[in-house]
Target: DUF1801 domain-containing protein
Amino acid sequence: MAGATDGETAVKDKIGELPAFQELAARLHHVIVQAAPDLQPRLWYGMPGYARTKSSPVLCFFRVDDDQFVTFGLTEKAHLEPEEGAADRLIGSAWFLRELDEPTEARIADIVRRAVG
Model:
């Protein structure tokens, strides 16, 4: 894999091991790296995580839970602020999904860009 980092290779290998959500995971990885190309993919607790550098804390991640759904989430190291215009002060940090469509991909890309700050 020309130009791939060790972390990226490990993430892509892990995605290949997720039969229930392999296509969704590959698309989710693509959405994340397109939204924030400077993020460095690596395995984090055995699942894909994305950080500013190889050794800095992970900002966002995803994992497969019991082959029933995928969790996309942010860590406490991400830039966390309530959504602009929100009627409350809650800050989202994890979302469950079973499929990706264009609006969901766009929302995830926006979340990633905000998480990076």
